[in-house]
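Hi Prof. W.,

I finally got the Spt6 prediction working! I wasn't sure whether to trim anything, so I left the full sequence exactly as given:
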Amino acid sequence: ETYEWARKMAVDALEYDDDEGANPAGALEEILEAPERLKDLDLDAFAEELERQGFGNKSITLYDIRAELNCRYKDLRTAFASANPEELFDTLTKETPETFYIGKMVIASVIGISHKKPQGEQLDQANPVRNDETGLWQCPFCLKNDFPELSDVWNHFDAGSCPGQATGIRLRLDNGISGYIHIKNLSDKHVTNPEERVSIGQLIHCRIIKIDVERFSVDCTSKSSDLADKNHEWRPPKDPYYDQDTEDKDIRTEQEAKKNKQRQTYIKRVIVHPAFHNISFAE
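And this is what came out:
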C-alpha cells in the first residue's frame, strides 16, 4: 500500500497539476534524480490526512519513504560501535554509577592474602631473627617463625617456599567483582601480618576507594576512620539544592542540647531499693 504513497509524494514534490495527466511512475524516476525537492513536502500534513482516511498513524513510514528516495538502499540504522569499558562493566555487573561508586560501603569476603616474593638481592641481604624465648628462627619476609636452625631459613629461601612479604588481602564482593585492600589501608594501626586481622572466608565491611572497570576490580579500605567517614570524604555529593546551612544549624543545636543536658548534674543518692532511680527534674 505504501508504494502509492511514494508515487503521490513524488508527484506532489514536482508540483504537477491534475490536468497535466502526470505519470506517477515517471514522476518517481524524476524525483530519484533530484531527491532534494522532497524536502519541501509537508509530511506531517500528509500523515494527518492518511490518518483521517483510516490508515492510522503513518508518519514514521512517510519519513522512511523520503529517506529511501534520498539515499536508496542505505542502511538507516545507527552505525555499530563497540561498547566502551564503562558500558561493558555496567552491562556485565548489572551495576550503574548510581549503585556502584567510589565511597560506597560494601561487604566483602576475604579470599586470600597477597604477597610480594623477595628477589635475589633481597634474599642476599636477608637478616633472619632468632626468638630468644622459643629459640626458633623467623623469616624476615613471610614472618614464619618455626625454623629450628638458621640453615633452615636459608633452605626456605633456596627452595622458593617463601611467599614473601604480605602486601594486602584479596576480596570477593557480593556482585562477583574482585577487590583488594592494601596492607596500609587495612587498619588505622600499623599491620605487619594481615592474618592477625582477618581470616580466609571472613566477611568484612569496607569502602570502595578506586574502581578499575577494565580489570573488573576495586580497591577498598577497611580503616575505622574511613568507615566512619566523619569528615564526609567518601560520601557521594549531595544535591546542589540541598540546604547544607540548615543541616549544620540543626547539628549545632543538637550538640548544644547534649552539652546542656550533661551540665544538669545532681547529687546521686545511694538507696538500696529496686524501685529507686536517680532522675532529673524534667524526667
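The longest helix spans residues 244-263. Does that look reasonable to you?

Thanks,
D.
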